[in-house]
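Re: that backbone. Tokens:
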């Protein structure tokens, strides 16, 4: 494929991304689930990461946030992505689901991803990415809900049946089409990306009479990989410094941290800050300090992180957050026969 075709194809995708970014919505009704090990589930963060390992990759993640509080938040997901050298393209499929409030409210999504590699020179590459998917949000356990008139037993019309009256226009599940896009610029030592979800401003309202546009989710993320040799044996390690900013409606947050990465072991620490765009002056914005441990054995990678809550919620009350990730990567003959491509240098966990 000629350089002209590469540039034209990339230009078409960039143009599509810019058009999508122009369709925004600002009202906040819900927030997307988040991960501490967001690079272990990189396609969930940015569709431009699809095929970023230049191999076949299957990944799973599970997060249990604030298990000490009744009605904890649980999320999990899976993904598969692959790089196709002859097309300079990455393809991916992702699935995610979450439950909040003792399973009373949940959401799930399924999406297809496409990314395209554009060489910008000998040391720099660019990947735009596009994601098209289907999402649903609704009530999982209707019987667990308690309405106000069920508690007013002394008033006429009270009781469980009264709560269901007048909800003829209420639906248990809302399904909607969802669009996301992103891009990443990278070399062997650094990466800088941006991504956004819900670009078509879908509604997740559970009533026919009202609309509730899902607020635009935006992320800017990047980092550097610094080669480092340590110890008497001169073992090779890399120092990874990474940061991620995320914004949705009236809320935003910043994660930044560092880790030591070797062929077999990764360990690190990160800090999450809730910036709170609309918070009152003087409100605390600390959220959590996260500890990370990752192991690599042949084609398997497993990671565990624990969030220590440092907000006013308190670690003793929330019990922090547990997160587990697992991935398996493998190469096919087509990856070995073609010219070398530049691997994204971001963290594996």
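Recovered sequence:
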């Amino acid at each position: 494929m000629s350089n002209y075709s590469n540039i034209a194809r990339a230009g078409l995708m960039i143009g599509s991304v810019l058009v999508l970014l122009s369709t925004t919505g600002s009202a906040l009704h819900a927030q997307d689930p988040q991960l501490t090990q967001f690079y272990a589930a990189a396609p969930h963060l940015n569709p431009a990461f699809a095929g970023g390992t230049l191999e076949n990759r299957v990944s799973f993640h599970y997060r249990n946030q604030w298990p000490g509080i009744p009605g904890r938040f649980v999320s999990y997901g899976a993904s598969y992505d692959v790089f196709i050298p002859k097309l300079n393209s990455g393809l991916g499929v992702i699935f995610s689901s979450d439950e909040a409030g003792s399973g009373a409210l949940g959401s799930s999504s399924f999406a297809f991803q496409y990314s395209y590699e554009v060489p910008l020179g000998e040391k720099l590459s660019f990947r735009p990415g596009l994601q098209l998917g289907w999402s649903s949000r609704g009530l999982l356990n209707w019987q667990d809900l308690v309405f106000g008139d069920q508690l007013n037993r002394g008033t006429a019309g009270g009781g469980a049946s009264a709560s269901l009256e007048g909800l003829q226009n209420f639906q248990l599940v809302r399904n909607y089409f969802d669009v996301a896009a992103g891009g990443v610029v990278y070399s062997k030592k650094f990466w800088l990306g941006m991504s956004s979800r819900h670009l078509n401003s879908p509604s997740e309202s559970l009533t026919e009479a009202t609309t509730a546009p899902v607020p635009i989710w935006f992320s800017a993320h990047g980092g550097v990989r610094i080669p480092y040799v340590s110890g008497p044996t001169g073992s090779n390690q890399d120092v990874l410094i990474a940061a991620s900013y995320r914004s949705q409606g009236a809320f935003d947050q910043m994660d930044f941290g560092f880790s030591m990465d070797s062929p077999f072991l990764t360990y690190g620490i990160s800090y999450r800050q809730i910036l709170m765009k609309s918070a009152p002056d003087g409100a605390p914005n600390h959220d959590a300090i996260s500890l990370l441990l990752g192991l690599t054995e042949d084609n398997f990678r497993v990671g565990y992180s624990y969030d220590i809550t440092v907000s006013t919620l308190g670690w003793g009350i929330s019990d922090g957050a547990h997160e587990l990730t697992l991935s398996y990567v493998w190469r096919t003959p087509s990856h070995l026969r073609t010219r070398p491509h530049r691997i994204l240098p971001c963290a594996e966990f």
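Residues 3-21 form the longest helix (19 residues). The mean pLDDT is 81.
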